[in-house]
Amino acid sequence: MGRIIPASQYYNCRVADNSSHPTQTLAGMLRASQWTASLSETELERVEAGVFERQIGAGKSVCRKGESCDHWFGIIEGLVKMSSDRVTGKTATLTGIPSGGWFGEGSMLKSEPRRYDVIALRDSRVACMRRETFLWLLDHSLAFNRFVLVQLNERLGLFIGMLETERLHDPDTRVAHCLTSLFHPVLYPNLGDRLAISQEEVGYLAGISRQRVNRSLKVLEDAGFLRVEYGGVTILDLEGLRRFGS
Questions:
Q1: Checking DSSP bridges between strand 71-77 and strand 124-130, what pairing results, if any?
Q2: Gap between the terminal Cα atoms of the chain
Q3: What is the pLDDT of residues 27-53, one digit of tens each?
């Protein structure tokens, strides 16, 4: 399950990371999210009371296929993958979700068990909104309903594009599109131009080996789309990267 921390413990605190810079807080992440902008202070306080934090270790699950859909999730810090894992050992990665991303709204709108797994690719901090709070927002906020509608539409478009890339394009294009999906301006806003991600993590998300990711990143770097750095990549030409292979 991971360690559970209520939102109230994070309302006015900062947690220092290894580089001595302040990290995102749960309350800070909530107030920075697009869907909270239209909420009144009273509504926001009710939301904060219905959200808690879980700390998930690398390789551990945020949620599992077949579980009941009791929470809507947001990534405070870290990186997770949405996938379908079979008992045979085969895994189909659906998408990656970086810091600032929210997911699971489709599952919350249905009463059926969850249809996918979400696994942390590194130590991650996850915001968990209780189902009753999510449904209360749907009942009381027109702006939140619009946000959910846009979120579902954008994710559908993302999945269609990923399916096309998986079936029709070479590994270089798959890596390019894997990276651009993590810089989606609607699903993952305010990410900036740099993403802390390892070549192994890119390989998990793109469905290719780390060695092949290394070669593809070199191709994309030589073309001027990105710069490979220690512990991550900086995007230099996001639109060009999106068009790569088209």
A1: antiparallel
A2: 42
A3: 999 999 999 998 999 999 999 999 999
Name the pLDDT band for 167 (thresholds 50, 70, 90): low
Inter-residue contact 223 to 232 (CB < 8 Å): no
Domains in the chain (CATH in brackets) are 3-158 (2.60.120.10), 171-243 (1.10.10.10)
Helices (H), the chain: 26-32, 41-49, 105-108, 131-140, 142-168, 171-182, 199-206, 210-222, 238-243
Over the stretch 73-104, which tens digit does the pLDDT of each residue have?
A: 999 999 999 987 655 566 677 789 999 999 99
Contacts of 228 (CB under 8 A, 6+ apart): 217, 218, 221
Q: How many CB atoms are located within 10 Å of the residue 75 CB?
A: 26
CA distances (Å), origin 151, targets 17, 79, 230: 31, 19, 32
- Which amino acid appears at position 174 of this protein? R
